[in-house]
């Protein structure tokens, strides 16, 4: 009998990884088997990583106004900060910080359309601590400054359902929109 991988607590001939919830893959594991096959613990499969990444993304969607940083989000996803950042970018096509700022700008647009808060109040309301970086990011994503966006009339969208307005007004980085331009 040989011991199983560190932490699995199994001792059996052939390691008994299948009983521990592992699957056979073609390569890339420290647990070789006869015939060139390898075994990888299920907890490291891409599907389980996506579930954990989704948990962190849901936290960003829910708690966008809270002070969130990559190490805190990585803890939510049960990953190291570096692995979390790489995995998040691979899965969603943008960094965790970029995703969080997009959510914050999306919410800021809704608050600015209401018109009852100043740009500084909106900045603080959505969780940004620096008015300068908020304004820069807002201008980058929306194409105009927060003040200009607030001053512009937004009455034409008052009859549009909120779910449609959210999709149509979602911030899009310059050059990312491959389709027709928004009205």
Task: Please give a structural write-up.
With 183 residues, this protein is mainly α. The protein is built from eight helices and four strands; from the N terminus they run ββββαααααααα. Among the domains are: 46-93; 101-168, Homeodomain-like (Arc Repressor Mutant, subunit A), CATH 1.10.10. Helices cover 48% and strands 7% of the residues. The strands form two sheets. Strands 1-2 form a two-stranded antiparallel ribbon. It has a two-stranded antiparallel sheet with strand order 3-4.
Radius of gyration: 23 Å
Helix content: 40-55%
CATH superfamily of the domain at 101-168: Homeodomain-like
* Proportion in β-strands: 5-15%
CATH topology of the domain at 101-168: Arc Repressor Mutant, subunit A
The CATH class of the domain at 101-168 is identified as Mainly Alpha
Order of helices and strands: EEEEHHHHHHHH
Number of strand segments: 4
- How many strands, what sense, and barrel or not for the largest sheet? 2 strands, antiparallel
Secondary structure class reads: mainly alpha
Distance between the termini: 69 Å
- Shape descriptor: elongated
């Amino acid at each position: 009998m040989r011991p199983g991988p560190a932490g699995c607590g199994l001792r059996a001939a052939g390691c008994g990884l299948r009983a521990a919830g592992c699957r056979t893959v073609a390569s890339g594991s420290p647990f070789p088997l006869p015939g060139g096959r390898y075994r990888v613990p299920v907890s490291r499969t891409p599907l389980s990583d996506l579930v954990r990444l989704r948990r962190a993304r849901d936290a960003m969607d829910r708690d966008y106004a809270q002070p969130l940083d990559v190490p805190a989000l990585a803890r939510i996803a049960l990953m190291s900060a570096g692995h979390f950042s790489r995995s998040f970018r691979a899965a969603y096509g943008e960094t965790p910080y970029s995703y969080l700022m997009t959510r914050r700008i999306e919410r800021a647009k809704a608050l600015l359309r209401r018109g009852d808060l100043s740009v500084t109040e909106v900045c603080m309301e959505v969780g940004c601590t620096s008015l300068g970086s908020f304004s820069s990011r807002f201008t980058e994503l929306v194409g105009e400054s927060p003040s200009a966006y607030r001053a512009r009339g937004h009455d034409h969208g008052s009859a549009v359902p909120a779910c449609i307005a959210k999709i149509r007004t979602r911030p899009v980085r310059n050059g990312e929109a491959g389709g027709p331009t928004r009205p």
